[in-house]
Design a protein that fits this description.
- By secondary structure, this protein is an alpha/beta fold.
- It folds into two domains: about 140 residues, Rossmann fold (3-Layer(aba) Sandwich), CATH 3.40.50.1370; about 150 residues, Rossmann fold.
- The chain contains nine helices and nine strands.
- Strand 5, helix 5 and strand 6 form a beta-alpha-beta unit.
- Helix 1 crosses helix 4, helix 1 packs across helix 9 and helix 4 packs across helix 5.
- The chain starts with 11 loop residues before the first helix and ends in a 13-residue tail after the last helix.
């Protein structure tokens, strides 16, 4: 079975197919559910709300059986390795494992040793492919494509797996990526051009804000909430200078009054909760692809 570890492993054609299938699920739902039990294990070694529960909702909407792993009560507390845990789940019948882990590239020593499909739900500061796909779906629904768009990624770039995945794939799909945020958190390896916060806000079609990932900062405290908001956040005053058609995105969880003014979280430009809604359908498409299923007949194709 195929793994989904990073989008750089996928062709543009496969990415487009996943977006099309997700839109089909959103428009038509799961036309038929799987006929025999298929088990999918969800292993989250870091806190998660949106990713964890949208995968679980996606699994249930497809008629899959979710096995929700709890690290605090599992044999990992007795020294069992991640590989051995996955081998146990594989032998118990799991066909796929959705994994969130603090270690970047946790999947590298696993992918050639297991028969179940590995789905990366976020690895440290590495990649977050399902989040990138739901971001792409949200942008495509708004602009019908990517070529010619300018997408700004603003904030804690160095520690953001979302920024890494998005910058790489958006560039591949023909968008221009601009980057902004504190110099201390720049990521020179990302594709894109660094600009000032003001230029990013004023020139972008998509303003994608990023959370300050304090859990990855090793105690470095560069800003208070108030000073960050004034220096790099989307304030009410900055929002007024955005392009008329520009939209606001954020992978969440968002910090009101830090990355974004509280009043803007659900303003007319905001697509933040739309991203969350799209997450279920993207993850349905990912699971269908990873498990080799055909929930909506392949002859049904939707152009978006």
């Amino acid at each position: 079975m195929p793994h989904l570890l990073s989008l750089t492993d996928l062709s543009v054609h496969t990415i487009e197919e996943l977006l099309t299938r997700a839109q089909a699920f959103q428009d038509r739902g799961a036309e038929q559910r799987v006929r025999e039990p298929i088990f999918v294990a969800n292993l989250f070694f870091e806190p998660s709300t949106r990713t964890r529960f949208s995968f679980e909702v996606a699994e249930k909407r497809l008629g899959l059986n979710a096995l929700n792993f709890d690290d605090t009560t599992s044999s990992t507390q007795k020294g069992e390795t991640l590989y051995d845990t996955l081998r146990v789940l594989e032998e118990l019948g799991a066909k796929a494992a959705v994994i969130r882990h603090s270690e970047q590239g946790f999947y590298e020593p696993l992918q050639d040793r297991l028969h179940l499909s590995l789905i990366n739900a976020g690895d440290g500061s590495g990649h977050h492919p399902s989040q990138t796909l739901l971001d792409l779906l949200t942008i495509q629904q708004e602009f019908s494509g990517f070529k010619g768009l300018t997408v700004a990624m603003i904030g804690d770039l160095r520690h953001s797996r979302v920024a890494r995945s998005n910058a790489e794939i958006l560039t591949k799909l023909g968008a221009s990526v601009i980057l902004s945020g504190p110099p201390e958190w720049h990521a020179p390896e990302f594709p894109g051009t660094y600009v000032s916060i003001e230029e990013a806000i004023e020139t972008a079609d998509v303003v994608n804000l990023l959370r300050i990932q304090t859990e990855r900062h090793d105690g470095e405290g560069l800003f208070t909430k108030e000073t960050y908001h004034q220096a790099y956040g989307l304030t009410l005053e900055r929002e007024k200078r955005m392009k008329a058609h520009a939209i606001i995105m954020h992978p969440a969880p968002f910090n009101r009054g830090v990355e974004i003014a509280s009043e803007l979280v659900e303003c007319r430009r905001s697509r933040i909760f739309k991203q969350m809604h799209n997450g279920v359908h993207i993850r349905m498409a990912i699971l269908e692809w990873a498990l080799g299923l055909n929930i909506i007949p392949q002859h049904f194709q939707l152009s978006i």
